[in-house]
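HUMAN: Can I see a protein plus its fold?

ASSISTANT:
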Amino acid sequence: DIWRGSLDIVRQPVCLKVLRYFPTKNNRDAAFKACLKEVMVWRRLRHPHILPLLGINEDLFGPRFCLISPWMRHGNIIEYLQ
């Protein structure tokens, strides 16, 4: 799920991508490790067509995690092309 939010740090709208999984007490640690692995890859990416990862949050939509990146005012690529 995608939500629009704002961070005081960057003073601009941000995209909050909430991961679609429903952690249980037993799989939360494994899900967190898998999420961190993806985060570490995304943090290192540097490309003009890939938005930077600004952070990760587990409090806003707890117990699910959300990834934070810049908000694009034209929406996703499909919406932009239409």
Notes: Residues 2-81 form a domain with the Phosphorylase Kinase; domain 1 fold (CATH 3.30.200.20). The chain has one domain: 2-81. DSSP finds two helices and four strands in the chain.
